[in-house]
UniProtKB/TrEMBL annotation:
Primary gene name: mutY
Family note: Belongs to the Nth/MutY family.
Cofactor(s) the record lists: [4Fe-4S] cluster
Annotated protein name in UniProt: Adenine DNA glycosylase
Domain named HhH-GPD: residues: 39-190
EC number of the protein: 3.2.2.31
Cofactor note: Binds 1 [4Fe-4S] cluster.
Function noted in UniProt: Adenine glycosylase active on G-A mispairs. MutY also corrects error-prone DNA synthesis past GO lesions which are due to the oxidatively damaged form of guanine: 7,8-dihydro-8-oxoguanine (8-oxo-dGTP).
Length: 346
């Protein structure tokens, strides 16, 4: 097999079957490609498209994003998950405006020094926005390369990861960088899918090791399994006589950093004294609502909601607490499980 067989086969397939109408390519700008690439980390194209449209309507330029309050950026991200992406996007926008005069670097090393931009993302941005040769290695590309070369190990292992970068580098052509990059991502997303790949439609089938050995399901190997621990938390749904709900902005570090959530407690008996201290209520009666289950990367969380209706009083001392009506709630960034919980009581 000639070295360029892989890229030629992919480019030919892409011309006919690739996704040519992605909104971040029309009009094409490095800013739009960057935002889309960050949104597409861990998230599928079909989910990203409406978020991307809303984001661009509110932050049409790098400068508008850099000047926006973080809260507003997080609100546009609410529901997409992995909120560190939004915080890093905002941080990187400020950095680009302040330290790079608003101009995106055109080399992978400098671009990947910005918050939230790894080597693969930097490669994807440079290849797509500037049509310059820059290999990428996202999840889809890893899967295609593992299958094509019959690699059954887990790509998270350093030596496997290094080998995959070598292969990505080997196959990336000198010409048509933008099309080739999109083609590799498209093949992984639409043809060489995680389960049930459509090998009968695949342009790489002729030389694909996994196809010839029928070992698609074993390539790439899975991460060694660890049983996730389970945690539980009580969350307070306090509403007042005006229908407002008590929300608390989370610290800027840790889970759901900077988002608005419900006050939480590890111990149920701490809720009433807390209400007395911060809202001056007494004789409060809590009602247990159905638990909500949510899985993070590192653990399962069981949320045990407790509902209470109280008379509105001034909030004492804690500035990160706020009574919010439905309109105000819609303006804040809330984690998806909290939105789900609030929907059950509104
Ligand atoms: S032939 Fe099948 S397993 Fe091989 S790259 Fe194509 S879709 Fe993936």
């Amino acid at each position: 097999m000639r070295r360029d067989w892989f890229s030629k086969a992919l480019l030919k397939w892409y011309a006919q079957h690739g996704r040519h109408d992605l909104p971040w390519k029309k009009p094409l700008s490095v800013y739009r490609v960057w935002v889309s690439e960050i949104m597409l980390q861990q998230t599928q194209v079909s989910t990203v498209i409406p978020y991307f449209a809303r984001f661009m309507a509110s932050f049409p330029s790098l400068e508008s994003l850099a000047n926006a309050p973080l809260d507003s950026v997080l609100q546009h991200w609410a529901g997409l998950g992995y909120y560190a992406r939004a915080r890093n996007l905002h941080k990187a926008a400020k950095c680009l405006v302040n330290d790079f005069a608003g101009i995106f670097p055109k080399d992978v090393t400098t671009l990947s020094s910005l918050p939230g931009i790894g080597l693969s993302t930097a490669g994807a941005i440079i290849a797509q926005a500037y049509n310059l040769r820059a290999p990428i290695l996202d999840g889809n590309v890893k899967r295609v390369l593992c299958r094509f070369h019959g690699i059954k190990s887990w790509p998270g292992e350093k030596k496997v990861h290094d080998k995959l970068w070598e292969l990505a580098e080997y196959h990336t052509p000198k010409q048509q960088a933008a099309d080739y990059t999109q083609a590799t991502m498209d093949l992984g997303a639409t043809c060489c899918t995680r389960t049930k790949p459509s090998c009968e439609l695949c342009p790489l089938q002729k030389h694909c090791a996994a196809f010839s050995q029928q070992s698609q399901a074993q390539c790439p190997g899975k991460k060694p399994r660890k049983k996730l621990p389970t945690k539980q938390l009580y969350m307070l749904c306090a509403q007042n006589q005006h229908g407002e709900l008590l929300l608390q902005q989370r610290p800027l570090k840790g889970i759901w950093a900077g988002l608005w959530s419900l006050p939480e407690f590890t111990d149920e008996s701490a809720i009433v004294p807390w209400l007395n201290e911060f809202l001056g209520t007494s004789g409060a009666k809590l009602t247990a609502l159905s638990p909500i289950l949510h899985t993070f990367t590192h653990y399962h969380l069981t949320i045990l909601p407790r509902l209470i209706t109280i008379r509105k009083k001034a909030i004492k001392s804690q500035s990160n607490l706020s009574w919010l009506n439905n309109d105000a709630l819609a303006q804040r960034g809330l984690p998806a499980p909290i939105q789900k919980l609030i929907a059950t009581i509104r």
